[in-house]
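User: Could you check the structure of this?
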Amino acid sequence: MEEVKINRVYRHFKGNYYFVENIAYNSENLEKMVVYKPLYKNDDNRNLWVRPEKMFLEDVSDRQDNITGQKFRFELVSDIEKNYLK
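Assistant: Sure, the predicted structure tokens are below.
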């Protein structure tokens, strides 16, 4: 998969949508980290998340909980076309 695009919407393989805010770097090892926020209402006040870019883009096609059937953990979307969550 290509590099993560900033200011774009991605769908997680479990169905939720997220907005990528930026790319950050781990101060200890300079690993690239993706900074993103959920595009759904959550009650736990966790507004920003950080995940290693390598994990953000990893292949999850074999996971049983992959309800979207997508290949990667997060995939870039052009339209929010289907609500996978009920």
